[in-house]
Amino acid sequence: MAESSRRPALDGDQGEGALWANQSLILKQLEELKNEFRRFTTEVRLEFQSIKGGGGNVQLPQPPASPVHRAVPRRGRGGRRARNELPELSDSEVEPGFPQQEDLSDPGEEEYQQCFSPPRQRQETWPRQQGEFRVKMDIPFFDGKLHIEDFLDWERAVETFFEYMDVPRDKQVKYVACRLRGGASAWWQQLLQTRHREGRGSVRSWARMKQLLRSHYLPTDYDQILYMKFQQCTQGQRSVSDYTEEFYRLSARNNLNESANQIVARYVGGLKEPIQDKLELNSVWSLSQAVNFALKAEMQLNRQLRSAPQRRFLGDSVSSDNRGQGPNQSSNSKVPPKASTVTTPPPQTGDNRQVNRMKTPNRDNPYGRPTTLKCFRCFQPGHKSNECPNRQQVQLLEGESEHFTTTAEGEDDEDYEEVAGDEGEPVVCVLQKLLLTPNQNTKTQRNAIFKSKCTIKGKVCDLLIDNGCTENIVSKALVNALQLKTTKNPNPYRISWVKRGIDIQVSEMCRVNFSIGKHYNSEVLCDVLDMDVCHLILGRPWQFDTGVIYDGRANAYAFEWKGRKLKLLPTMLRPANEDGDRKPALCIFSGNSLLKSGREVKAVLAVVVAEENQNATMVNYPSELLQILEEFSDTIPNSLPSELPPERSVQHQIDFVPGANLPNLPHYKMSPAEHKQLQNIVDDLLDKQLIQPSLSPCAVPALLVPKKDGSWRMCIDSRAINKITLKYRFPVPRLEDMLDYLAGATVFSKLDLRSGYHQIRIRPGDEWKTAFKTRNGLFEWRVMPFGLCNAPATFLRLMSEVLKPLLGKCCVVYFDDILVFSSSMDEHWKDLKAVLELLRQHKLYQNKAKCELATSSVHFLGYIVSADGVGMDPNKISAIQQWQRPSTLTEVRSFHGLANFYRRFIRGFSIIMAPITDCLKASSFKWGVEQQRSFDTLKAALTEAPVLAAPNFNKPFHVDTDASAVGIGARRVL
Fold it and tell me: Is the Cα dihedral 588, 594, 596, 598 positive or negative?
């Protein structure tokens, strides 16, 4: 009734104006009702919070029933809108303490919901509107297979659920445990059972449960991994929006305490360079400004790329046909089908922008590195070949083209990566080089055709590129040798120029997959011919498909391949007088290959190698030594145990420079035989548990290095890792100090560790920093590998700590070489047993094949150590005696370094070596009479060098001196 009394009186005619006035008044009343309802809900909310804070059981007052407003039936506009104007609560207005229309899993929350649920009558009075929704939340399931960021997202979802749903603390752990699945659920049950057996209480708080989950499912250095991802976050080939999304995510993950300017600098530094150039024109003070400017710059650059016309060539020029036209000439004029060659200079009508451009070439970036332009037509600096005034003008077709991109300003041949011919195991095919040019006396390419080497199925083959050949051709001998699959040629034909006096029928085709260098690998369809010119001829089809550019002066082919600019270089010609200087090659053949080669040639020189029996010398050992070897046989095994070495106090640690970028390099290209050998080594290391599969963000390639015994050793190219590793300085013992301890010693034994580096563990948590790549996967070391910068210091630190009680008394150690010395044989047995006992305690194993036991002289660090003293190694003296006259500065440095190693044995070494030392100071190689005299005198002095006795510090020293006007000289007399 109150509502009806407040209705305005309507005129009898019920005009449209009165209806609109009536509607406005009703809307105003509804707005007042909405405000009144909001005040009521605020009072109820505050009352509930006060009761909850007091903790007492206080009877909450029932909210007063709001008056029910009956909708006024109206016709016309807005008649259906009045019902939608009723006050409704949005999701943002509902707090955790206010009752919600949803089912909760917690019983306490259900009672709480029922206690404060609005009456059913009010629900009927306020029907659900179209924009109303109910929030339904739940914790995602967790099965223990999430990555770092996914786990952190799940953890945040749990905490958001607890905060929004106001779950009591004593029920949080139980609720999360219900959401565990699979391996995570099994791990949680095992954890609870373990705690129950150990008498510990159950986990009662979510904070403790979160700590346990993190310790089990997150790596110990996950924060470092996230920081490294943040450090390496760059735009790359992505859009600005994708890069911004990742930047925001990683910034939130790391939560670094950086200022706003530092965050902006980090964001801008990861953008592409063209976008950075655009942002440098504006002052950016916040991250949101930087993001907006970057998005606008990206849109601008995309418009420029879409609007820039692309040109299609008819010749070697990049200028358009309308360049230099007058203002009255149309820029859209078409070029006639047949382009005419004009030798006149460019037209001077209209503006002379072309002439000015020839004089002063523009550069898009004034702050970029200046480039030295050089014309390849007139060979004059200052302009490019397409701007050369002496060039022939060629008309161009102007228009859209998807197959060509114009060359950037200032770009020249220096951007191309030079690719030389392959080296390796040649294919076994006999070829007669009939059509190749004879050897010239010069090293130029003026009379040479392009010849190089390529790799086909791991074999190095002869390659020839011929501009006049209309097909790609492969030798039939190569097809048979490598068992390549052939197909019939649909258009057979005959040719007669590839073999002397014979017409050859071309009826077969073959697809040949070949590679040159590390980055170029292609497959070509070739005609199979019985030719003896070379193994593979690349003709016009390959040149057309690849889009090569031929440089006639350099005899090189340049092209783009998978984003790289490559330039194929020919095999360098060797003068005829250098053929006699080539060293003979030593090849190893199987039995069948040797018989086959013997049928083709008249004489074959073969080297038969007999394997040395390492056990043959055991019969000459004294009985005391055999007894010691039997006692310590566990420390001298034939191979390392198939288990990890023990955790010692000395472990190899790898600490990176803060803020350094982690390397991720591709694996090296290898032949199938090398790859098989590398895979065998990797499988053996996996069986011995020395390496394990890795998910490391950084990786370096692995390679093979031959050993002295003919086997192969896998090495890691760790140069990129060593650049960002902090260097630890550990003192390396001086050779002179170690030799001083040998005074009075007559019996020596040298022990050598078996794979000494692999007997040292990597510090836990640093394994991912040693990851290496092969063709079959990514692996990381669990023991110390070769090639790391701090590895020698770590190994020497371990050996010094293990042998510390005996160092200087009966043994000296230099990395993995342990020299045991004694004054008598009886004393030597005790010293040797003491050293072996220390090695046994620390589980360090020796290589018996490299050990020299109980001898009167021993090789140690390039010297011969005996009871008489220290002498030179005869092998090194022989190498110096056979040294040929140096012909380059590099050979002079090699001889100087080797001779300098034995300078202590030669009186007046500096005076004799002075002419050769002066030769090294010159900028160019000069070898005269004085250098030759010094060279011969030094070799003669090495043959007469004495054996130096070790000094006995228990006896007095006599020092003789002589007066001098420029210095003091002295010598020591024993």
Answer: positive
